[in-house]
Known about the structure:
By secondary structure, the chain is mainly α. It folds into 2 domains: 21-80, Fe,Mn superoxide dismutase (SOD) domain (Helix Hairpins); 91-191, minor pseudopilin epsh fold.
Amino acid sequence: MAIELLPLPYDLNGLAPHISAETLEYHYGKHHRTYVTNLNTLIAGSEFEHLELEDIVRRSTGAIFNNAAQAWNHSFYWNSMSPRGGGAPQGLLADLIVRDFGSLDAFKEAFAASGTKQFGSGWTWLVQQPDGKLAIVNTANADTPLTGADRPLLVADVWEHAYYIDYRNARPAYLQAFWQLVHWEFAADNLA
């Protein structure tokens, strides 16, 4: 069973002006596609060949893990944004953010600060821990909460290719623009 490059949940220009079609052409069309292509080459004839992507991420190491986790992380990232995103979360997610961060503004500030401080390449996640509390975690390179006990709710990609075309090296500006796109309903659907 080949792993497929999942279609974007919106058109290439769907996130403009915050993330351009040109960025998505490179980030999704080249970077993400390359991870999927490489993964299919690596798993051909292996014990991973017939597994679902999440199972490959959880069971693999080395190059297979790197490509599988990057494919999964990117799909999760695309769904963490929406052309109709932004605003504020509702319901339980909103209540948990206030409980665990004090306010939505305090959460946004902490999330952006965490993403800005991530050294090198990686990801900034909103996760739900096994005890039900929400937390912000950074992972480096291809690492993902999928391999641990935390449940991923939302992610911002802080690799330079996620923002360099539109924001050059201004990661903080990109993370501020993320709030105009954040797909709160997707995050709420991921709650345990």
